[in-house]
Design a protein that fits this description.
single chain, mainly beta, five-stranded mixed sheet, 5 helices, 33 strands, globular
Length: 520
């Protein structure tokens, strides 16, 4: 009885405090080396730019793409990250000399690994910039050895180590968003490694389907059999004096094999739409920085999949501020099934198409469509409506912190209630853990992961192990998602409002929610 009463009081207190304590000021702050927060680091004087991260299926091994190397790190032990094996993969002196002769700085000419994906149960597919001449190779995941000679990586990996890209392998095929030329003027969304009757596909370069994009991420939705790409680009549909940046979501169907005559070896299912992250009476946060998907709750339809993104603004009035918006897959699909804009080739002006649809842009199964239908989808690829955020409002707005990366997790709380937890990385090198409550976001804690601000390239969440990994230019940092033992008393445990933790009356300790008989 006492335990149930204590739990009821705790839950009531949690609910009461939810609406009134939602400031983005972290409740607890852990600075570098603080004994109250366990952080594990891996770095080596011989290894730098550990920026591309890939977790094994059992989450005991972390593969890292670095400068001139691919690493296999054993992360199965809580107290240490150890190097199990390393593949050195660097350009020759001749390659470096040719890179320098092209006018590139020698510091930018090594092989920066930018694509690292599991091809199957035994092999990893990796690509690097390789002295501004991208190369790709198959690597055995067990021994970290190349199984064949590297081949050309054009269209699969950027030339420039500073250009952002995205890549995902589904059913043995590689889907990428990157640039396909040395100068970075040919952006592509393409498919590679196709076998059998399937063919590699790409965008039609002549149509302006992409306008100087910065690729952010890609996501596979199995129920839809579609790949969604997220990026920012110049919004040519806006007739502004200055270049107006817009954030986009685009989609392609995995079943796409191109057209028979029109759009041969080109996507027939490509469509894109604007992601609108905007608070009332404010300029939009129009530049996408990072995005992560949150699968639907157990038993819920795929349409309930959410995408949480960090957005910043191109205008100085919002300088230093960032916002988080969430978008529902159902709303994205609704926009793609609606009307499309059409470009007047003479005036270069976009307008809403008023003529009857000849075909449905973005629809799967168009490979047998008529040339007339394919010409229609070729010119009608920009959705007329924008994808609005959930609740038509911004999830988080921060004037104090400039966020660059995020990961999102659904955590089971009391009874059947679940909480959404955001892990947000600041530009200044702090990791924020925020829980979404009824009144908004509450930042439970911040953890300093780097002493000096530095470019963060990758953030990887291990839900099974309860860890989050940060990849940067100087090394890899691992932070446990929960820190329950820091709270010594029941009030401290409850007031933390951390859904990972709960007060256990039997042991009189704040423990992980999975171990608690009275989790909060």
């Amino acid at each position: 009885m006492e335990n149930r009463s204590l739990l009821s009081l705790s839950v009531a207190l949690l609910s009461f405090l939810s609406p009134c304590l939602t400031a983005l000021t972290p409740r607890v702050s852990f600075h570098m080396g603080s004994p109250g927060r366990h952080v594990t680091r891996f770095s080596s004087p011989e290894v730098s730019n550990t920026s591309t991260l890939l977790l094994s299926e059992d989450e005991d091994m972390l593969y890292v793409g670095a400068r001139d190397a691919v690493l296999a790190l054993d992360v199965s032990h809580q107290d240490a990250i150890t190097l199990r094996s390393q593949l050195d993969w660097s350009p020759s002196d001749k390659d470096l000399e040719q890179c320098s002769m092209k006018g590139k700085e020698m510091a930018d000419c090594p092989n920066f690994i930018r694509v690292l994906q599991f091809l199957n149960a035994t092999h990893i597919y990796a690509c690097g910039t390789f002295a501004y001449s991208p190369r790709c190779s198959y690597i055995t995941s067990e021994t970290l050895m190349m199984s064949m000679k590297p081949d050309e990586g054009r269209g699969r990996c950027p030339y420039d180590p500073y250009q952002r890209n995205t890549a995902i392998i589904v059913d043995g095929e590689l889907y990428t968003g990157t640039v396909a030329d040395y100068r970075g003027n040919r952006p592509l969304i393409s498919r590679h490694l196709s076998e059998g009757r399937r063919v590699d596909l790409k965008l039609d370069d002549t149509l302006g389907w992409l306008e100087d994009p910065t690729f952010i991420s890609s996501s596979f939705i199995p129920e839809e059999e579609k790949i969604y790409f997220f990026f920012s680009e110049v919004g040519r549909e806006y007739d502004f004096i200055d270049k107006f940046i817009v954030s986009r979501v685009s989609q392609i169907c995995m079943s796409d094999v191109g057209g028979q005559r029109t759009l041969q070896r080109r996507w027939t299912t490509f469509a894109k739409a604007q992601l609108l992250c905007q608070a009332d009476n404010e300029l939009p946060y129009n530049v996408l920085q990072d995005i992560d998907s949150l699968p639907p709750a157990e038993g819920a339809p795929a349409d309930d999949t959410l995408f949480y993104g960090i957005f910043t603004s191109q205008w100085s009035v919002n300088s230093g501020r960032s916002a988080v918006c969430s978008f529902r897959l159902a709303d994205i699909k609704s926009v793609f099934s609606g009307n499309y804009k059409v470009l007047n080739r003479d005036t270069l002006q976009w307008s809403t198409r008023v003529q009857e649809k000849v075909a449905n842009p973005g629809e799967c199964g168009l490979h047998n469509a008529s040339d007339n239908a394919l010409r229609f989808v070729k010119e009608n690829f920009l959705a007329d409506d924008s994808v609005r955020p959930v609740g038509r409002s911004v999830t988080v707005v921060s004037a104090e912190h400039s966020y660059t990366h995020l990961r999102v997790q659904r955590v089971q709380g009391t009874g059947s209630r679940s909480y959404t937890v955001l892990f947000l990385l600041t530009e200044s090198g702090y990791l924020h853990k925020a829980v979404m409550l009824q009144g908004g976001a509450h930042v439970i804690e911040e953890v300093q992961v780097f002493e000096q601000p530095q470019p963060i390239k990758s953030l990887k969440l291990s839900t099974a192990k309860g860890m989050i990994y940060v990849g940067s230019s100087e090394g890899v940092v691992r932070v446990p998602t929960a820190n329950c033992s820091f709270y010594w008393t029941c009030p401290q445990c409850v007031l933390a409002r951390d859904p990972f933790c709960g007060w256990d009356p039997a042991s009189r300790a704040c423990v992980g929610a999975s171990n608690s008989q009275a989790s909060l």
